[in-house]
User: Fold this.
Amino acid sequence: MRNVVYPMLVCLVGSLAHAGGLESYLTGELAELELLETPVSLADHQVTYPDGSTHALKEKNGKILLVNLWARGCVPCRDEMKDLASLQEDLGDDRFEVVALPMEKRSIKSARKILKSWDAEELQPYGNDSQALARVLYDEGFFTETEISFVYPTTYLVSKKGEILAVREGFLHWDTPEARALITALKDGDF
Assistant:
């Protein structure tokens, strides 16, 4: 089991209490996000950048990330990607980025081609090792089972420190006023 708590039961302290707390932004469909009770870091996960170089996600510290796991044959992934591309186009900058990670082994060229066919050209094509991601999440205590399977799509909302704040397994509409308000608050806030 993961270490999550549902938004209605969360009592956040410290930096999350700033501006009414993260949970105050989880309205409408965003209420389906699961807030983590204990921070889980994605900082050590290695991804292949569009230029072919490999870097840990900690190189993106200082940015709010929406890390989205997708697979080519996943229809909800394709539908969700359009929303994520719109978010990236409108809000993406040095403080926010959508990081779309393919969960099947594929080249950057192949990922770029799929994103283009899904009308998500605004997103950078990254390469990803799903087994390495599973190991990082397991080592961080996100999963307690050794046999790990992912639901597609899954999206992790990651803080500027590289810690997962919330997770959504399954499709979610991201191109909404509520999602834009959440991302803007995270970009501008200290949580």
Q: What stands out?
A: The helical segments are 75-91, 108-117, 130-139, 177-188. The chain has one domain: 4-188.
